[in-house]
Amino acid sequence: ARRAARRKNKQPQNKSNQKTISLVAPKTATPGKEITLIISHTIPKKLGAQKVHITLKHGTKAKRLERKVITATGKGTKKITFTLPAKITDHQISFSAFVGPDYPNNLDHVTSKPISTQK
Prior knowledge:
6% helix, Immunoglobulin-like, three-stranded antiparallel β-sheet, flat, mainly beta, five-stranded antiparallel β-sheet, single chain
């Protein structure tokens, strides 16, 4: 049981330091409105199509609000739109994204700086 628990809590094993994605987040956000995040990706041909998991988080503890999964290949940009809830904890949100089938096996992971949601 202890071994299973240890396996479950394993940190991601980033096998490469290649930068495959970057985030362009808006400077401000308004609760109850839509917010669009731009993701630039450069995925080597040998990796083929990869899943990109984008997570919208809120508050200083970065609790997950919503996650979207897209598929990306080669070089390009994608726009992802989230609808913010009317109430945001600590008046701040952030985005995280990773490339790969799941978090423990991700190829790259990035997180945006906190974005203020003051009215």
